[in-house]
């Protein structure tokens, strides 16, 4: 490996190129996700609400319950409780 200033250039280049490829894949996946939300919206679903559901489904049951409890508490404190 060629080193310049104590840095292995070929190893650094390899890391950078891997990161660039992953960033391209991430952008492609984000575009695919946007298309799915657009398709869902076209059939009458609300993407904003769907995004909230997706976010909640990532949480385990205890974390989800804690967030819902805090949300209810904050809404009550602001006079927004139903």
User: What is the overall number of helices?
Assistant: 3
- Strand-and-helix sequence, N→C? EEHHH
Q: Which stretches of 5+ consecutive residues score pLDDT under 50?
A: none
Oligomeric composition of the shown chains = single chain
Fraction of residues in H or I helices: over 70%
Structural Rg:
22 Å
Number of strands: 2
Largest sheet: 2 strands, antiparallel
**Overall 3D shape:** elongated
In the sheet with the most strands, the strands line up as 1-2
Strand content: under 5%
The CA-CA distance between the termini, in Å, is: 66 Å
Mean pLDDT: 93
Structural class: mainly alpha
Overview in brief:
With 82 residues, the protein is mainly alpha-helical. It is built from three helices and two strands, in the order ββααα. The mean pLDDT is 93.
């Amino acid at each position: 490996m060629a080193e310049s200033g104590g840095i292995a250039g070929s190893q650094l280049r390899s890391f950078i190129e891997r990161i660039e490829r992953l960033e391209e894949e991430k952008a492609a996946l984000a575009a695919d996700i946007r298309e799915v939300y657009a398709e869902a919206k076209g059939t009458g679903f609300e993407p904003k609400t769907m995004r909230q559901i997706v976010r909640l489904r990532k949480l385990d049951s205890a974390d989800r319950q804690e967030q819902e409890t805090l949300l209810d508490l904050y809404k009550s404190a602001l006079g927004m409780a139903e």
